[in-house]
Amino acid sequence: MIESTPMLPVEIWYQIVEVVDDPRSLLALACVCRSLNDWVMQTFARYDEYCSRVLQTADDLHSLRHSFRETPTLPFFLRYIVLEDSLLLNFAVEFVGFCPNLREIVIRSSSDPPPPPLSLSMQMRLVLSQFKSVTRLHLMFDDFATFKDLIRFICAFPKLLDLTLVEVGYARGCACVLEQVPVARTLHLRTLHIQDSRDLSLYQCLLTAPELSKSLISLTIHAEDHLFRDLGNTTILNDSSNEGHLGVSPQEGQPSAPMLARIPRMQDSIARLTNLREIVFYFTIDGRKDVPGLGLATVLSTISPNPIETIAIIYECVDSSYQLFGARTPAWMSCFRSLDITLTSPRFSHLKDATIILASLDAEDVRYLASPGRVLPFEGLRTRSILNFAVSDVPGPAASDQFRWTKLVNADHARREDALPIPTSLGMWMTRPAEILTSLRHPDDHREL
User: Which SUPFAM superfamilies match (predicted)?
Assistant: First the structure.
C-alpha cells in the first residue's frame, strides 16, 4: 500500500500565502482547499482596500508609502491608481519600478488650488516611460502647457492601448496634425474615449497620429451636437508662437517659422482609421438645446465608405420636464430619419449592429413609443435587421444614474431578451456611456408596457 506524502501544516501554508507576490499564483493556491481559498480571498480583500484609495494630498502618498513598507507584497497587487495631477511627479519618481502590475492610471485635475498647466520635462518623460505595464490612461480635466506636452505625455507610456480624455486642454499655442511628428508614431491605441463640451479640434488632430489608422478599433465621442455642426469646414489656425506645434523643426529645440496649421475635418479623421470597427456617440437632452443629432447626421453623411461594424448613439435626458414627443415630435422624427438614411447608405455597408438608446425619458415618452400600432423610427435599420432600439425611464424622484430598461425592440418589433452588443470601449473607466450601456446589458428590471 502506497501512503501519500503528509501535507504541510496549515500554518506553513499561511506563511506561503503571505509571501506570494504574484496574483496568478495566489489564485492557484485558492484552488487547493477551502481553507486556503478563504485565506487567499481575505488577502485579496486586504489588497483591494489598500489599492482603492484616491491620492489627493501628500499625506495620501505617505500613507501609500507606509502601506508598502508594512506589506511588501502590496506593490505587486496594485493594478490601478487614481491621483491628482499635482502629485503626479512625486508619485512617478518615488514609485516607478515598484508596481510591476500597474495597469491603469487615472489623473484628474486638482481643484483647490488649481495647479499650473502640466509641462512635461525630460525627467518626467524618462520616468513615465518606465511604467511599461500601464495599458490604460485616463486624463480628467487636466490642462497642459502646450499641445506638444499633451502628446508627449500620452506617448510616454510605451504600452498604452486605451485612452480616455475628458475636457483636456492646453494653455498656449495650437494643435496640429501629427502625421509627420516622430513621437506620435509610438502611439498604438486600441480604444479612445473623448468627452468635451467646448471644442473637438484637439481630438481631430490626435486622430491623425500615423499608427492609429491601423491600431484604433473603437472610438467613443461624448460631445454637444453643435460641435459636430461646426465640423463641416476645415479649421485653419495661425500658430504664430509655435509653442504648440510639433514636428516642423528638423531638430529638437530649434525654433520653427510661423505657419498655418490645417486641422482636418472630423469625418476625414475618422475616415482614415481603416481598422475602426466600433463607434459610440453620446448626447444629453434638455430644454435649452436644439434637437441633438442633426449635426452628427451631417458629419456621418459626408464620411467616406468605412469598415465600421457597430455603432451606438445614446441620448440621455437630463431635464425632468423635457418631453421628446408632443410639440417636438416633428423635429425628433426628422432627426431620426436623417440618421436612418445616413446609416443605411452605402457608406456604412459593413454595419452589423446599430444601437439607438433613449435614456431617462419622461414616462409619457416611453408610453408613446410603446403604444400599440406605433410606427417606430429607424425603418431602414429595422428593414436591414440590424437595429437594437432601447428606451428607458426613471420613475419618480430616482437619481439619474438609476435605470430601468423597459422595452427592447428589434427589426420585427419583438422584444429581445438577449443582451445588446457592447462595444469594447465601454470598459473605459467612469464614463457615462459605459454606465448606460452596461446597465442595458444587465437590466435590473424588464416590464411590458
Answer: F-box domain
